[in-house]
Amino acid sequence: MEKRKAGSAADSTIKTTRHRLYPAGQLVPFILVTALFFLWGVPNNLNDVLIRQFMKSFAINRLEAGLVQSAFYLGYFLLAVPAALLMRKAGYKIGFVMGLLLFGSGCFLFWPAALVGRYSFFLFALFVIASGLSFLETAANPFIAQLGDPESSEQRLNFSQAFNPFGAITGALIGTIFIFSGIELSPQQIAARKAQGIYEAYLRTETLRVIKPYLVLGIVCFCWALLIARTKFPVIQSEVEQKGTHHGRFGELIRHRHFVLAVIAQFLYVGAQVGTWSYFIQYVQEYTREPEKIAGYFLTGTLAAFGVGRFVSAYLMRTIAANKLMATYSAVNIALVAVGVLRPGWLGMWAIFLTSFFMSLMFPTIFALGLKGLGPNTKIGGSLLVMAIVGGAVLTPAMGYIAEATKQIAAAYLVPLLSYIFIAFYSVVGFRRREYANEDFGGTPDQGILASK
């Protein structure tokens, strides 16, 4: 009887705290880390503008311009595991600071890259930026997921991730206003400028337009690194490593079927998201005949829809299971992308435009579902889920290749269509995990905060 009363008291305590987004006394760390979701959204979607800008300033085709995303997401892929190993020893806070320093350094490399005028130098700068973002995402996603009640990890991560689209919108606006000049030359005008010997000067002017936005972004990164370095951060349960404690191994993760499928789903989702936005400006221009500035504003609009979707999803998850909501959203996107492929034009453009709303919950939801039950493997599991972001490096050039081969941007959107089919499968079946996970590896994976340091 006493046990039953004690259990009831414990249940009531859980119910009163379950809907808190963060534990008491941890508002400042929560804000500082949530702001990172905004910050890394800026360069992610500046890339969508850079692809179009570099096609113009370096006179390259869609496949070559797609290397922007390849260089960027290779940084994520190659640095995710080193980031996890560093943080396993030193904690999440070190990951945040290191990531911001790399992020800022890559932004400052845009200055010499523009002065030299080498496309390969820009790709290297993007690689350095993405290396920093790999540290930030490897740290921030599991940190937020574990910052409080494990039952609300998906809702909490969706809330923090909801600020990422504001960064994306900011990046698209910065690119549209400050990088796009609005000067688009016809083949006849290009030939005339070449004959006058002024075409190279035009290309150089277009290249130099990228410097100022990236310098400002780099300064913000260094300032935020200083703020985080001077703030007391909580210690997460998975960071506590006592003598004789199991620290987690990569091989053990293979036993978690739901995690392996989450990595695949994340790979396909990021490829779908990055590819959709990377070629959206060109889709708008090709099928609606609107100029690059207007197409850039349409990109900004679809990113705004993405942001609204994040907040709506976080609200709906209060009453709807995360996997069921993601299954519904996946089914809607399958239909919308099919319209974009089969009916290119204004109808297809609006269909692709709306997919951003319904893809909005996928990354944080897949991430949170994949981490459940990993115990001491949470950090390295998070690093592999971040490595899955390499889907953007693989599927974006694949879309460029299809577009070049078929001479139709619409056909390239078959890649996101297939990706959403797999995500729908993961939402219905693949997310389920076996109960042996905690028994085998000990401990409770998401017990939250222990202390402050």
CATH topology: Growth Hormone, Chain: A
Strand order of the largest sheet: 1-2
Tell me which CATH architecture applies here. Answer: Up-down Bundle
Shape summary: globular
| Overall average residue pLDDT | 83
How would a crystallographer describe the biggest sheet? 2 strands, antiparallel
Radius of gyration: 22 Å
The first-to-last residue Cα distance is 40 Å
Outline the low-pLDDT stretches. 1-18, 241-245, 436-453
Quaternary structure type:
single chain
Please report which band the strand proportion falls in: under 5%, 5-15%, 15-25%, 25-35%, 35-45% or over 45%: under 5%
What is the number of helical segments per DSSP (H or I, 4+ residues)? 24
How would you characterize this protein structure?
The chain has 453 residues and is an all-alpha fold. It has one domain: Growth Hormone, Chain: A (Up-down Bundle), CATH 1.20.1250.20. It is built from 24 helices and two strands. The chain has a two-stranded antiparallel sheet with strand order 1-2. The chain is globular and about 65 Å long.
Keywords:
453 residues, Growth Hormone, Chain: A, two-stranded antiparallel ribbon, 2 strands, 77% helix, 2% strand, disordered C terminus
Set out the fold topology.
Elements: H1 2-17, H2 27-57, H3 62-65, H4 67-90, H5 92-108, H6 110-116, H7 119-146, H8 153-161, H9 164-179, H10 187-196, H11 199-208, H12 211-229, E1 234-236, H13 250-253, H14 257-278, H15 280-288, H16 292-316, H17 322-342, H18 346-359, H19 362-371, H20 378-387, H21 391-406, H22 409-412, H23 414-430, H24 436-441, E2 449-452
Antiparallel strand pairs: 1-2
